Amino acid sequence: MQPKVQFKGIREGLLVTLSEGNWSEMEEALLDQLSSQSDFLRGAKLILNVDNHVIKAAALGKLRDRLSDHGVTLWAVLTNSPTTEKNAQALGLATKIYQGPAQHKMPVQKSPPADGDEALLVQKTLRSGNRINYDGHVIVIGDVNPGAEIVSGGNVVVWGKLRGMVHAGVHGNLDAIVCALVLQPTQLRIGDKIAISPNEQSSHQPETALVRDGKVVAEPWLPDGKRLN
User: Fold this and answer.
1) How far apart are the first and last CA of the chain?
2) Where do the domains of the chain lie, and which CATH numbers do they carry?
3) Which of 123, 121, 167, 164 is nearest to 145 (CA)?
4) For the segment 160-201, what is each residue's pLDDT rounded down to a tens digit?
5) For residue 77, what are the contacts with CB-CB under 8 A and spacing of at least 6?
6) Beta strands 73-79 and 178-183: pairing type?
7) Is 9 helix (H, G, I), strand (E, B) or coil?
8) Enclosing H/E stretch for 17
9) Higher model confidence: residue 100 or residue 222?
10) pTM of this prediction?
11) What is residue 96's DSSP assignment?
């Protein structure tokens, strides 16, 4: 059975797709998911795919307010319904996401023989509001605090505590990994995969996050470094 609510990390934010059915039930299912993971998803920019649901402007406005109460911003509504699209636009919400030329630029960004060979070394703690965006690997000697963000085309290695947001393999590289001495991110993505549940019971031992069987999982960070190759 298809789940009522599906999450997927994309370039623009967090894409949430609601299945067909009673709108009120779908809305409550979404809010229940957010309630159970409020700390992890707080600050996310949400793109809501409602498919064929016909939603009035008042209902969309109410949902936007309820999402805001969870610390989530409703940024866009994707729909097949002209009525829902018109109502979303009336509320100032986007109804399309940019998928054009960027798709053609990706191969150009990956054209070097070994994607992400270059690395950026950051020797300081990243505090709330700090953001790093780099096409290669990113290595941080220090902590990454909540509210800080790292976006990398390759791997991300944190020689410290990772408690902020990180997106490795941003151009679609599912072989990218994220390593940290303490892996407790507020949000973690690899390629288009997003880790929905935080690592609440961290052993405070070095760990590696990687994509296995289509899901982001955490494993012990092995000293041989083979996963960095």
Assistant:
1) 38
2) 5-90 (3.30.750), 110-228 (2.160.20.70)
3) 164
4) 999 888 999 998 899 999 999 999 888 899 998 888 654 445
5) 47, 48, 50, 55, 60, 84, 85, 88, 93, 94, 95
6) unpaired
7) strand
8) strand 13-18
9) 222
10) 0.53
11) -
